[in-house]
Write a structure and sequence with these properties.
Distance between the termini: 40 Å
CATH superfamily of the largest domain: Spore Coat Polysaccharide Biosynthesis Protein SpsA, Chain A
CATH topology of the largest domain: Spore Coat Polysaccharide Biosynthesis Protein SpsA, Chain A
Strand content: 15-25%
Number of strands: 11
Order of helices and strands: EHEHEHEEHEEHHHEEEHHEHHH
Structural class: alpha/beta
Radius of gyration: 19 Å
Largest sheet: 9 strands, mixed
Number of domains: 2
Length: 306
Protein backbone atom coordinates (compact mmCIF):
# COMPACT_ATOMS: atom_id res chain seq x y z
CA UNK A 1 0.00 0.00 0.00
CA UNK A 2 1.20 3.50 -0.82
CA UNK A 3 2.29 5.59 2.16
CA UNK A 4 1.11 8.94 0.72
CA UNK A 5 -2.02 9.79 -1.26
CA UNK A 6 -1.79 13.08 -3.16
CA UNK A 7 -5.24 14.67 -3.54
CA UNK A 8 -5.66 17.56 -5.98
CA UNK A 9 -8.98 19.42 -6.28
CA UNK A 10 -9.49 21.26 -9.56
CA UNK A 11 -11.91 23.79 -10.95
CA UNK A 12 -11.08 25.28 -14.35
CA UNK A 13 -7.41 24.47 -13.75
CA UNK A 14 -6.34 23.51 -17.26
CA UNK A 15 -3.53 26.08 -17.32
CA UNK A 16 -1.95 24.69 -14.15
CA UNK A 17 -2.80 21.04 -13.60
CA UNK A 18 -0.50 19.68 -16.30
CA UNK A 19 2.61 21.18 -14.71
CA UNK A 20 1.47 20.04 -11.27
CA UNK A 21 1.04 16.44 -12.41
CA UNK A 22 4.25 16.43 -14.45
CA UNK A 23 6.18 17.40 -11.31
CA UNK A 24 4.82 14.26 -9.63
CA UNK A 25 5.69 11.94 -12.51
CA UNK A 26 8.96 10.71 -11.01
CA UNK A 27 7.49 9.63 -7.68
CA UNK A 28 7.47 5.83 -7.10
CA UNK A 29 4.01 4.44 -7.79
CA UNK A 30 4.25 1.87 -5.03
CA UNK A 31 4.77 4.62 -2.46
CA UNK A 32 2.49 7.37 -3.77
CA UNK A 33 -1.04 7.35 -5.19
CA UNK A 34 -2.46 10.39 -6.97
CA UNK A 35 -6.10 11.34 -7.49
CA UNK A 36 -7.61 14.47 -9.05
CA UNK A 37 -11.11 15.50 -8.00
CA UNK A 38 -12.59 17.87 -10.56
CA UNK A 39 -15.48 20.12 -9.54
CA UNK A 40 -17.26 20.40 -12.91
CA UNK A 41 -14.64 22.37 -14.80
CA UNK A 42 -15.84 23.96 -18.03
CA UNK A 43 -12.36 24.18 -19.56
CA UNK A 44 -10.07 21.29 -20.62
CA UNK A 45 -8.92 20.33 -17.11
CA UNK A 46 -10.29 16.80 -17.38
CA UNK A 47 -8.64 16.25 -20.77
CA UNK A 48 -5.27 17.34 -19.38
CA UNK A 49 -5.60 14.90 -16.48
CA UNK A 50 -6.82 12.04 -18.68
CA UNK A 51 -3.89 12.54 -21.08
CA UNK A 52 -1.53 11.79 -18.19
CA UNK A 53 -3.47 8.71 -17.13
CA UNK A 54 -4.01 9.98 -13.61
CA UNK A 55 -7.02 8.77 -11.67
CA UNK A 56 -9.83 11.31 -12.07
CA UNK A 57 -13.04 11.76 -10.10
CA UNK A 58 -15.29 13.94 -12.27
CA UNK A 59 -18.06 15.63 -10.32
CA UNK A 60 -21.18 16.70 -12.18
CA UNK A 61 -21.40 19.93 -10.16
CA UNK A 62 -19.13 22.14 -8.07
CA UNK A 63 -19.14 20.34 -4.72
CA UNK A 64 -16.76 22.91 -3.22
CA UNK A 65 -13.14 22.55 -2.19
CA UNK A 66 -13.75 20.89 1.18
CA UNK A 67 -16.12 18.30 -0.25
CA UNK A 68 -13.73 17.60 -3.12
CA UNK A 69 -10.84 17.11 -0.71
CA UNK A 70 -12.87 14.74 1.46
CA UNK A 71 -13.89 12.83 -1.66
CA UNK A 72 -10.27 12.37 -2.59
CA UNK A 73 -9.33 11.17 0.89
CA UNK A 74 -12.17 8.64 0.91
CA UNK A 75 -11.16 7.37 -2.54
CA UNK A 76 -7.62 6.57 -1.38
CA UNK A 77 -6.16 4.30 1.28
CA UNK A 78 -2.72 5.68 2.20
CA UNK A 79 -2.21 6.62 5.86
CA UNK A 80 -0.90 10.07 4.87
CA UNK A 81 -2.61 12.53 2.53
CA UNK A 82 -0.98 15.45 0.76
CA UNK A 83 -3.52 18.08 -0.24
CA UNK A 84 -1.90 19.84 -3.19
CA UNK A 85 -3.22 22.78 -5.18
CA UNK A 86 -3.13 22.44 -8.97
CA UNK A 87 -0.98 25.60 -9.12
CA UNK A 88 1.66 24.04 -6.84
CA UNK A 89 4.57 22.07 -8.30
CA UNK A 90 6.45 19.74 -6.00
CA UNK A 91 10.20 20.33 -6.12
CA UNK A 92 11.27 17.80 -3.50
CA UNK A 93 11.26 16.72 0.12
CA UNK A 94 8.10 14.63 0.19
CA UNK A 95 9.93 12.05 2.31
CA UNK A 96 10.95 14.74 4.81
CA UNK A 97 7.36 15.88 5.12
CA UNK A 98 6.14 12.31 5.61
CA UNK A 99 8.88 11.64 8.19
CA UNK A 100 7.26 14.19 10.52
CA UNK A 101 4.47 11.66 11.02
CA UNK A 102 6.85 9.10 12.49
CA UNK A 103 5.88 10.91 15.67
CA UNK A 104 2.24 9.82 16.29
CA UNK A 105 1.56 13.18 17.95
CA UNK A 106 1.88 14.88 14.56
CA UNK A 107 -1.41 15.34 12.74
CA UNK A 108 -0.44 17.81 10.03
CA UNK A 109 2.61 19.30 8.30
CA UNK A 110 3.24 21.85 5.58
CA UNK A 111 6.30 22.74 3.56
CA UNK A 112 8.21 25.64 2.06
CA UNK A 113 6.35 27.43 -0.74
CA UNK A 114 8.30 29.44 -3.28
CA UNK A 115 6.88 32.12 -5.55
CA UNK A 116 7.64 32.31 -9.27
CA UNK A 117 10.90 34.15 -8.60
CA UNK A 118 12.03 31.45 -6.16
CA UNK A 119 11.49 33.44 -2.95
CA UNK A 120 9.66 32.00 0.08
CA UNK A 121 6.00 33.00 0.26
CA UNK A 122 6.41 34.53 3.71
CA UNK A 123 3.15 35.40 5.39
CA UNK A 124 1.29 32.73 3.44
CA UNK A 125 3.00 29.35 3.85
CA UNK A 126 2.55 29.40 7.64
CA UNK A 127 0.25 31.52 9.76
CA UNK A 128 -1.20 31.68 13.23
CA UNK A 129 -4.89 30.92 13.59
CA UNK A 130 -6.97 34.06 13.17
CA UNK A 131 -8.26 35.84 16.25
CA UNK A 132 -11.15 38.31 16.29
CA UNK A 133 -8.58 41.13 16.11
CA UNK A 134 -6.94 39.46 13.10
CA UNK A 135 -10.17 39.42 11.11
CA UNK A 136 -11.21 42.90 12.24
CA UNK A 137 -7.89 44.38 11.13
CA UNK A 138 -8.20 42.55 7.82
CA UNK A 139 -11.75 43.58 6.92
CA UNK A 140 -11.21 47.20 7.99
CA UNK A 141 -8.15 47.46 5.74
CA UNK A 142 -5.81 48.22 8.64
CA UNK A 143 -3.36 45.55 7.47
CA UNK A 144 -3.06 47.27 4.09
CA UNK A 145 -2.50 50.69 5.61
CA UNK A 146 -0.21 49.43 8.39
CA UNK A 147 1.13 46.03 7.32
CA UNK A 148 3.73 45.82 10.10
CA UNK A 149 1.19 46.20 12.91
CA UNK A 150 1.69 43.61 15.68
CA UNK A 151 -1.61 41.82 15.03
CA UNK A 152 -0.77 41.24 11.36
CA UNK A 153 2.88 40.46 12.16
CA UNK A 154 1.85 37.69 14.54
CA UNK A 155 -0.90 36.34 12.28
CA UNK A 156 1.35 36.06 9.22
CA UNK A 157 4.26 34.63 11.26
CA UNK A 158 6.63 37.30 10.01
CA UNK A 159 9.24 36.19 12.54
CA UNK A 160 9.37 32.65 11.15
CA UNK A 161 12.73 31.59 9.72
CA UNK A 162 11.72 29.98 6.40
CA UNK A 163 14.67 27.57 6.58
CA UNK A 164 14.00 26.28 10.09
CA UNK A 165 11.41 23.66 11.05
CA UNK A 166 8.86 24.85 13.60
CA UNK A 167 5.56 23.95 15.19
CA UNK A 168 2.91 26.27 13.72
CA UNK A 169 -0.86 26.71 13.75
CA UNK A 170 -1.74 26.88 10.10
CA UNK A 171 0.39 25.73 7.15
CA UNK A 172 -0.94 26.75 3.75
CA UNK A 173 -3.67 24.52 2.34
CA UNK A 174 -1.90 24.62 -1.02
CA UNK A 175 0.75 22.14 0.21
CA UNK A 176 -0.65 20.40 3.28
CA UNK A 177 -0.05 16.88 4.54
CA UNK A 178 -2.16 15.28 7.25
CA UNK A 179 -2.70 11.82 8.66
CA UNK A 180 -5.77 9.82 7.82
CA UNK A 181 -6.09 9.13 11.55
CA UNK A 182 -6.36 12.85 12.36
CA UNK A 183 -8.75 13.44 9.44
CA UNK A 184 -11.01 10.62 10.66
CA UNK A 185 -10.84 11.73 14.29
CA UNK A 186 -12.16 15.23 13.57
CA UNK A 187 -14.58 14.23 10.80
CA UNK A 188 -12.71 15.61 7.78
CA UNK A 189 -12.92 19.07 6.31
CA UNK A 190 -16.11 20.98 7.07
CA UNK A 191 -18.05 21.02 3.79
CA UNK A 192 -20.27 23.88 4.96
CA UNK A 193 -17.43 26.22 3.95
CA UNK A 194 -18.75 26.29 0.40
CA UNK A 195 -17.47 26.66 -2.22
CA UNK A 196 -14.10 27.97 -0.97
CA UNK A 197 -12.14 29.81 1.71
CA UNK A 198 -11.52 29.19 5.40
CA UNK A 199 -12.13 25.44 5.12
CA UNK A 200 -8.39 24.87 5.51
CA UNK A 201 -8.15 27.34 8.40
CA UNK A 202 -11.00 25.58 10.19
CA UNK A 203 -9.38 22.20 9.45
CA UNK A 204 -6.10 23.32 11.05
CA UNK A 205 -7.93 24.77 14.05
CA UNK A 206 -9.75 21.50 14.69
CA UNK A 207 -6.61 19.40 14.20
CA UNK A 208 -4.86 21.56 16.79
CA UNK A 209 -7.84 21.44 19.17
CA UNK A 210 -7.79 17.65 18.93
CA UNK A 211 -4.31 17.71 20.46
CA UNK A 212 -2.20 17.01 17.37
CA UNK A 213 1.05 18.82 16.55
CA UNK A 214 1.30 20.81 13.33
CA UNK A 215 4.73 21.24 11.72
CA UNK A 216 6.31 23.55 9.20
CA UNK A 217 8.99 21.49 7.39
CA UNK A 218 11.21 23.53 5.02
CA UNK A 219 12.94 20.49 3.51
CA UNK A 220 9.68 19.86 1.64
CA UNK A 221 9.52 22.41 -1.16
CA UNK A 222 6.97 23.36 -3.82
CA UNK A 223 6.66 26.26 -6.24
CA UNK A 224 3.29 27.98 -5.99
CA UNK A 225 1.66 30.63 -8.18
CA UNK A 226 -1.66 31.11 -6.38
CA UNK A 227 -5.23 32.23 -7.09
CA UNK A 228 -5.37 30.63 -10.54
CA UNK A 229 -9.07 29.73 -10.36
CA UNK A 230 -10.10 32.79 -8.36
CA UNK A 231 -9.26 35.12 -11.23
CA UNK A 232 -12.14 33.70 -13.26
CA UNK A 233 -14.69 34.50 -10.55
CA UNK A 234 -16.80 37.60 -10.89
CA UNK A 235 -16.07 40.24 -8.22
CA UNK A 236 -19.50 39.72 -6.67
CA UNK A 237 -18.99 35.99 -6.21
CA UNK A 238 -15.39 36.34 -5.05
CA UNK A 239 -16.28 38.80 -2.31
CA UNK A 240 -19.45 36.99 -1.27
CA UNK A 241 -17.64 33.66 -0.93
CA UNK A 242 -14.72 35.15 1.02
CA UNK A 243 -16.74 37.24 3.44
CA UNK A 244 -19.39 34.54 3.84
CA UNK A 245 -16.76 31.96 4.79
CA UNK A 246 -15.01 34.45 7.09
CA UNK A 247 -18.27 35.00 8.95
CA UNK A 248 -18.86 31.25 9.12
CA UNK A 249 -15.43 30.77 10.66
CA UNK A 250 -16.04 33.53 13.20
CA UNK A 251 -19.44 32.10 14.11
CA UNK A 252 -17.93 28.66 14.64
CA UNK A 253 -14.79 29.59 16.59
CA UNK A 254 -15.42 32.86 18.43
CA UNK A 255 -17.64 33.73 21.37
CA UNK A 256 -20.89 35.58 20.71
CA UNK A 257 -19.52 39.05 21.49
CA UNK A 258 -16.43 38.56 19.33
CA UNK A 259 -18.48 37.17 16.46
CA UNK A 260 -20.86 40.13 16.49
CA UNK A 261 -17.93 42.54 16.65
CA UNK A 262 -16.52 40.91 13.51
CA UNK A 263 -19.93 41.30 11.85
CA UNK A 264 -19.92 45.04 12.59
CA UNK A 265 -16.36 45.35 11.28
CA UNK A 266 -17.28 43.56 8.05
CA UNK A 267 -20.23 45.91 7.53
CA UNK A 268 -18.07 48.99 8.25
CA UNK A 269 -15.31 47.77 5.96
CA UNK A 270 -17.82 47.08 3.19
CA UNK A 271 -19.19 50.62 3.51
CA UNK A 272 -15.68 52.01 3.11
CA UNK A 273 -15.04 49.79 0.08
CA UNK A 274 -18.31 50.96 -1.45
CA UNK A 275 -17.22 54.61 -1.27
CA UNK A 276 -13.71 53.81 -2.49
CA UNK A 277 -14.90 51.55 -5.29
CA UNK A 278 -17.60 53.70 -6.86
CA UNK A 279 -15.17 55.97 -8.80
CA UNK A 280 -13.59 52.88 -10.41
CA UNK A 281 -16.45 50.41 -10.69
CA UNK A 282 -19.53 52.59 -10.33
CA UNK A 283 -22.79 50.75 -9.57
CA UNK A 284 -20.96 47.40 -9.45
CA UNK A 285 -19.05 48.44 -6.34
CA UNK A 286 -22.24 49.59 -4.66
CA UNK A 287 -24.05 46.35 -5.51
CA UNK A 288 -21.19 44.12 -4.36
CA UNK A 289 -20.26 45.81 -1.09
CA UNK A 290 -23.75 46.82 -0.02
CA UNK A 291 -24.56 43.14 -0.40
CA UNK A 292 -21.61 42.24 1.86
CA UNK A 293 -22.74 44.80 4.44
CA UNK A 294 -26.24 43.35 4.31
CA UNK A 295 -24.84 39.85 4.77
CA UNK A 296 -22.87 40.90 7.86
CA UNK A 297 -25.72 42.87 9.41
CA UNK A 298 -28.08 40.00 8.74
CA UNK A 299 -25.78 37.67 10.67
CA UNK A 300 -25.51 40.25 13.45
CA UNK A 301 -29.24 40.43 14.11
CA UNK A 302 -30.16 36.79 13.83
CA UNK A 303 -29.30 33.73 15.94
CA UNK A 304 -25.63 32.92 15.79
CA UNK A 305 -25.96 29.56 14.01
CA UNK A 306 -24.38 29.27 10.60
Amino acid sequence: MARVAIVIVTWNSAAEIGGCLDALAGLPGDEVEVVVVDNASTDTTRDVVAARRIRLIANSGNAGFAAGANQGVRATSAPLILLLNPDARLIGGLDALAARFDDPATGMAGGLLLDESGLPQAGFMARSLPTPATLIFEVLGINRLWPRNPVNWHYRCKGLDPMTAAIVDQPAGAFLMFSRRAWQQIGGLDERFHPIWFEDVDFCARIKSAGFRIWYEPRAVAKHTGAHSIRSLALENRERYWYGSLLNYAAKHFCSVSFRTVCVAVAAGAAFRTVRGIPRRGPTAFAVYSGIAGLALGRLFRPRGR
